[in-house]
Amino acid sequence: MSTIRWTETNTPRSAHWHSESATPPPRRVIGADDRMKADTAYRLACEGTGLLWRGDFHGARRLLQAMSRRIDRKPPRRGDSPAESFHLHRRARGHRARVLGRLLVLLEDDYRLNLRRAPDVRRACIEAYGPQSEPMAVSLTELLGVIGAHQWRTKGVEVPALRARIHPHYGVFSPVRGEYVDLVAHAPLPPPAGPRAGRRTAFDLGTGTGVLAAVLARRGVDHVVATDISPRALACAEENVRRLCLTGRVDVMGPGLFPDGRADLVVCNPPWIPARPTSAVEQGVYDPDGSMLRGFLTALTAHLEPGGEGWLILSDLAEHLGLRTRGELLAGIEAAGLHVVGRIDTRPRHPRAMDAADPLHAARAAEVTSLWRLAAGRRPASAVTGSEPAPAPPPDEDGSASARSTASPAGTSSSA
Ligand SMILES: C[S@@+](CC[C@H](N)C(=O)[O-])C[C@H]1O[C@@H](n2cnc3c(N)ncnc32)[C@H](O)[C@@H]1O
């Protein structure tokens, strides 16, 4: 663990530094409070100086907003190609995160924030960081993410396909964009064919909150094994399975990708952007070289019962951004000895897809999320080649089929 050092009333002080995105500590740290002008704070943060806040908590939030407005004065330019626009967009987001991340707060050994008008963040911090024994400095932006994640964990995200709420944990992919959940809720299930015929089994790889495993169990799959590489996701999925009274029907295992054995259905919703995540929170969306997608395709046949299907849920945003081609995806499927049984498409309904000012608007507006039904072996002559109609969205509680709330839970990931 690294350390930050600063001087306060002529006394040298130090504290452990914590960053979920593995950002190194600022080399120079000074105290700051409500007397500091936003222009000064912005300049110092741009130069790399950490500002350890000692004033009013709400004053710190206002300063963060003022610094953010100064960053927005210079929006990233659009690139000459979608891939270049994406690259510039990521660079701008990285710059914003670095500058804003230099406003720091000190958490006491019990996660108390010793600032005027500070909220009680102890529960939120224990949930995100675990039990603590020493004071530590974190960026205010990270702490706000931790607080937001606690609120979403407490309140939950409504999942119409489950007629229940899913409670995401900090750093776990949240099903707030529910279109892909509806795909899994409506695609035709393959018939059970394993040694215990009549008993349908499924794997949910990269289960996150456990939402798809829960949907499959509620659809009548007798036994689902859910895995993830992230310990936070495993704990989160366990909790959701328990809340939904699905213990015994859904077993959460990991960390890892495939469990042992075979299943009638293997579902996988991998990160869909082949780019480097900048924090643990982004690991649900970004996978630098598409390793989870590749791992799923390569090992699928060995884990399918005869007649079983693999369901790959994948947005084509990476294709519109020039980061992957459709040909590469199809070649990966073929190279793994699989064929496409069918495909069900849906269009995202989140507000960013409609935001014409977004530098990635063209790609986002064209985005389609598909459920690819894959089976082992060569394509039989009768196999479906085109896409099937998208399933009707399930009605909301008032009976209408409206778009759902798409605000992204802070401290969880749901979009690129
Ligand atoms: C797009 S999220 C999907 C989460 C969940 N299945 C859902 O649909 O809401 C991708 C998930 O895959 C997990 N993941 C990423 N790489 C993985 C790997 N190599 N093995 C297992 N899980 C992985 C992430 O932690 C994340 O929870």
Automatic annotation (TrEMBL):
Q: Where is the composition biased (Low complexity)?
A: 400-416
Where the record annotates domain Methyltransferase small, the positions are 199-313
UniProt keyword list = Methyltransferase, Transferase
Q: Which CDD domains match?
A: AdoMet_MTases
Which InterPro entries does the entry link to? DNA_methylase_N6_adenine_CS, N5-glutamine_MTase, SAM-dependent_MTases_sf, Small_mtfrase_dom
Q: Name one GO biological process term.
A: methylation
UniProt keyword Transferase, yes or no: yes
What is the protein name for this chain? Methylase of polypeptide subunit release factors
What is the scientific name of the source organism? Streptosporangium sandarakinum
